[in-house]
Design brief:
Keywords: ATP-binding, Cell membrane, Kinase, Membrane, Nucleotide-binding, Phosphoprotein, Transferase, Transmembrane, Transmembrane helix. By secondary structure, the protein is of the alpha+beta class. It has 13 helices and 9 strands.
């Protein structure tokens, strides 16, 4: 095995770059920002309000205005509560997205139910939440929403409320027409959902493939440089080593009977042969010998991350709230090492004198808290933590390159490992930033 093959084997063990087989198993790619859904909801609130007012004021059609206003107000109130409870960067998990989209679907169905049911020309809009779900959620969470949409569409066919129409006239559709509209909405919903899922699936797989390709090309570039360095070293050292070996043999033959020099000459010859063996092993490295390095205790992993940042004049204190005898043994994960290193580097950059790392672990979870004694996060930055290309932690501090793409990448890598991150400022009279990272213990140990 050449040095290129050995390094490639280790790299693939440390970081799997192959595209996942199951598109639905990727939690990060199936999450979308809450702010996106909130904006779509405000668009729905505005559209429903304009439509109801136009029917009531411009067309003068009688309709249950109070009930319609209640339903639209419920959607607006839910939007306001979501905006107040969660930051704009919050990403919805599949279950939370299913709950919110189900609420949107039921609100839309209720509004259509009291305004004519399937006879309402806006009834096809009931498929919008389903399309959003299939474009952004796993199938096991999108299919229940599709079934709910089919049930709501069926219920609309039996709406007892008439379609708002001219006073004194009642517009009722024949059963055949209702069945036709029901079939059209159901077929459109199913087709649009399948189409959205396929397009989203292919786009994500393509993005993963491109990212994996870039990573492979970058690794190959470094491995090629390593190949050249090893070949150059073997070539440059081979000639003088051969000369030393020949001279050592001649000296051993000539001074073999001299007790004063024989031991030194034998040592010189044995060491030259050892150097030759080392050069031979350099071109045939085996990745099997590094298998024991793939697992390490939590304390060792933390120390490995901290070590490069101890030379910058900032004290790094490690507080362990747990017995090392029961600490988890983790798989060496390149994403975790990079992510933690980036967060600690950022804390060191903004700290005045000290950075404190607190480690806790029990049977269920592992918690790491990173605190510094700097100026902390300003309120406007704190609400946008996790977004790329933020320029700085606050308006007064501009050193260390800010909280930009590096923090975004670190947060994403740690979340891929199963971690949950919380950013805030230290409580009490002591200023400074505080980052809390929590993993399920089983996920951290199993990698």
């Amino acid at each position: 095995m050449t040095i290129r093959e050995a390094a490639t084997t280790v790299s693939r063990k440390d970081l799997d770059i192959s595209p996942p087989r199951d598109f639905n198993s990727r939690p990060i790619s199936r999450k979308f920002r809450l702010e996106t859904l909130v904006r779509l909801r405000w668009l729905a609130v505005a559209g429903q309000t304009v439509t109801v007012l136009a029917v009531d004021l411009l067309l003068a059609f009688p309709l249950p205005l109070l009930q319609a206003a209640f339903l639209i107000g419920a959607l607006a109130l839910a939007n306001i509560m979501l905006s107040l409870w969660f930051p704009s960067t919050h990403r919805l998990g599949p279950k939370a997205a299913l709950a919110l989209l189900s609420f949107d679907l039921l609100q839309m169905a209720s509004l259509l139910f009291i305004t004519g049911g399937l006879a309402n020309p806006f009834s096809p809009l009931i498929c919008v939440p389903v399309i959003i779900s299939f474009a952004s959620q796993p199938l096991r969470h999108a299919i229940p929403l599709l079934l709910l949409a089919l049930a709501c569409t069926t219920a609309l066919a039996f709406s007892p409320y008439p379609l708002p129409w001219y006073p004194g006239e009642t517009l009722r559709l024949q059963p055949v027409m209702l069945v036709g509209i029901w079939c059209a909405i159901v077929s459109m919903t199913c087709f649009a959902a399948f189409y959205a899922y396929r397009v989203s699936n292919e786009a994500t797989l393509l993005a993963d493939a491109l990212a994996a390709t870039e990573l492979v090309l970058e690794r190959e570039k470094h491995l090629s440089q390593l190949d050249g360095l090893a070949a150059a070293a073997a070539h440059e050292l081979g000639t003088p080593l051969a000369t030393i070996s020949v001279v050592a043999k001649e000296m051993e033959r000539e001074f073999g009977t001299d007790e004063r020099l024989r031991e030194d000459v034998q040592l010189l010859r044995s060491q030259s042969e050892r150097c030759r063996d080392i050069l031979q092993r350099l071109t045939s490295l085996s990745a099997a010998s590094e298998e024991h390095m793939r697992r390490l205790p939590l304390s060792s992993m933390i120390e490995e991350v901290i070590a490069p940042h101890r030379q910058f004049g900032i004290e790094i204190a490690l507080v362990e709230r747990g017995d090392r005898a029961t600490e988890p043994v983790c798989l060496r994960n390149a994403g975790i090492l990079y992510g933690l290193g980036n967060l600690i580097e950022n804390a060191v950059d903004y700290a005045r004198r000290q950075v404190t790392l607190t480690v806790e672990h029990d049977r269920e979870r592992v918690v790491l808290i990173i605190e510094d004694d700097g100026s902390g996060y300003s309120p406007d930055i704190l609400s946008r933590i996790g977004e790329p290309y933020m320029t700085k932690r606050n308006k007064e501090v501009e050193r260390a390159g800010g909280l930009g793409l590096g923090l975004f990448i670190a947060k994403t890598l740690l979340e891929r490992s199963g971690a949950r991150l919380t950013f805030d400022n230290r409580s009490g009279n002591e200023p400074g930033a505080r980052i809390r990272i929590e993993w399920p213990r089983a996920m951290l140990e199993e990698g």
